[in-house]
Amino acid sequence: LKDVSVYFRPPLEVRDVVFLTHRVLQEFPSTILPEFRPWYPSASDTRKPIRPQKPPPLISSEEPREEHQESEPKRFMRSWCVITDRTAPLKITHSFSRLFRKSIEKHGLDLHQRVKWAVCERNCGALGVEELWLQLNRAIRRSRLPTCNANFQRVLAQIWLYCDVFYCEYIGNFLKQEFQLSGQITLTAHKLGDIMKL
């Protein structure tokens, strides 16, 4: 301690206060902290502090394909995500239909808010959810679906397509027409749940 302030009442004398303060401070252990020295592992050090057990996954731009026609494609349980090219210009101009405008106003949605289209396996018909996922990947990479990113939830057999509210009607209609989806697809928003079905 460098500076110590002691407050006392007038009946005590200064020399008694100093004496008592010395005695109290002697009871505190005085330790000197060691100097900090950063540690860097050397090339010969085999025991690294952080060492992954498995090598990182290989990332390829190629789409998966079957090597044998008779073999069934392998179904991975992990969900993957594809994101559109953000540098691509957005050229779509449109106005909302009465149904969409009413739904947006009812829930007080901002046009830049993210919403999600959920496409189930039953919507795909003969196409199949795996094939739809591959075709959707191509459409997003070619910037046919503005502001979109998609996630394949294989455990649920669903494809989740996220987009801005401004494009949600266009994207919903694109999904239904381009991929000839059957039944209704659901539009949901965070904390609001299902907004509408198309």
From TrEMBL:
Cited InterPro entries: Shieldin_RINN1
Region ranges (Disordered): 43-72
Listed name of the protein: Shieldin complex subunit 3
Gene Ontology annotations of biological process type: negative regulation of double-strand break repair via homologous recombination; positive regulation of double-strand break repair via nonhomologous end joining; positive regulation of isotype switching
Compositionally biased tracts (Basic and acidic residues): 62-72
